[in-house]
Amino acid sequence: MGRIGMPIIARVFQSQPVCRPSSPAGKWTSTLTLLCLFALLVQSGLTATAQQPLAADPAAEAIGQDELSRTIARGASLEQERRWIEAVRHYEQASREFPDSRHIYQRLVISRLHYDVNRRYTDKSFVASAHSMSVSQALDLYSEVLANLDTHYVETVDWSRVLLHGTAALEIALTEERFVQDALPGKDLGMLHEFQQTIHRRIADRPSTNRFDLRATVAFVADVARQDIGINPTTVVLEYVSGAISTLDPYTRLLSGDQLDDMFSNIEGNFVGLGIELETDENSLKILSVIPGGPAEEAGLQPGERIVRVEQAETHLSDPEIAADLLRGPEHTYVSITMQDQQGGRRDLRIQRRRVEVPCVENVHIVDPATRIGYLRLTNFQKTTTRDIERALWSLHRQGMRALVLDVRGNPGGLLSAAVEVADRFLSNGRIVTTRGRNSRENFDYVAHRPNTWDVPLAVLIDSDSASASEIFAGAISDSRRGILIGERSYGKGSVQGIFRMQTAKFGLCLTTAKFYSPKGTAISQNGVMPDVKIESPYIAARPNDHGQVTSDHEDLVLQEAIAKLSSGNNLISQRTP
């Protein structure tokens, strides 16, 4: 098992898909159950998509303005167009603005379930498992997943809620074309709709007080589905597996075989892929950086260019993240793509996937020669991070560094241990972070140690995409008054995930096992870390802007503010005693 502290949907390197939302993803309201949601759906006859007029939301009356109504209408439009990833992002932002709106929370959950089933059925390894596993293997996998929830999940599990989530996943899957084409090709849609509408009522009286009850109920549903609509019962069970996990919290999820391999590659810092970092937008995949020595660099790909086709998937016709999934593949195989440069010119390329060593430290240089201020950007926290950042610091030291800007903007997190080790390089004593879980084995107090401490004046740059392990580091620096934080409030992802390999099949479980707190006991979850100096910059140094041009140091307003603060001597240095 690997312990990580990162928002899974934000991982961005090479062929792994990117979801880099404009607002912190997954900032749900409280851990409400879906009992009220599906009771409402059954009673009102609403389908899983927003095709009918929306009832008035009580929050709208309390607010006394039209903004909530416009927000709901915009979400309904995205749902009707089946633009699920955009709907998820829209409702995530709306849930921050209207945290008391039950309607927005419900639509967020439903949109996420739609998005998840589409992602599963574009994942070749998941589909292969659905076709090859027996129903008894699938049920054993379900039991194994539930046992891990029972033992390791951060909160006490509500088994009735888990069952409802699984039923919802199955109901929604039956409305999605990708699922139906794979699992039920040529079936009468009316028959599927009838089954979808009745399955919830047919299991309403079945017990759901423990995980053994759930296995029995899912076995019952799988058999009924086989008889009624002729579906492979394994497929039914896998929807229950996925649904049981995916709506517990934004970071707990089932990992297919390929995703599990990618996750451990992520931790190790090497991947099979093209060697590019991507960001999705509405119609394309934008290249943020190209890894030196990788296949993409050899093929001439440049930061700021866009991928507009992967194999048969045109990014403007389908979800760009689905196109990003197609970049994944076995080592030494080839992928066909179409690139678009900043002037709109296009070229077709065929690039070999290879194993690529992914640096986690980039753009190391003396950013202000007059005052000898060094700069480095930390892109993620992986096994090699401590070694790589130490090399960068010594390189800057040899160049005469007198102060340091350490940039974790856009850093989605990674290994908790790596975040602790990096913080320990700048703190000689005191607490770095505390983790607390339902299981006492998840309770740790991480403290700093004096050896090998760097005492240079320090500025840390953060933004709304600095998450998890980045927030552990930034929170430790802030609470200890070791340095000054500049930028925007961070993401607010204050939980730790464990990666569990399943024994019954090649799947993994990314499971929230603990929450973490800053040295002063501040919960990071939903709060984030606040900067000492609040300033926004649309662009990050050495990264492409909206026009595909690489941003210079002088165009990065946050970086320039950090240089000014360090140059003036008005920086916060450690308050520790010698």
UniProtKB/TrEMBL annotation:
Primary enzyme class: hydrolase
An example Gene Ontology biological process: proteolysis
Entry EC no(s): 3.4.21.-
GO cellular component: outer membrane-bounded periplasmic space
Keywords assigned by UniProt, alphabetized: Hydrolase, Protease, Serine protease
Domain PDZ stretches: 268-341
Entries under InterPro entries matching the protein: ClpP/crotonase-like_dom_sf, PDZ, PDZ_6, PDZ_sf, Peptidase_S41A, Tail-specific_protease
Pfam families in alphabetical order: PDZ_6, Peptidase_S41
GO MF assignments: endopeptidase activity; serine-type peptidase activity
PANTHER family: CARBOXY-TERMINAL PROCESSING PROTEASE CTPA, TAIL-SPECIFIC PROTEASE
Annotated family: Belongs to the peptidase S41A family.
Entry protein name: Putative CtpA-like serine protease
Organism (species): Stieleria neptunia
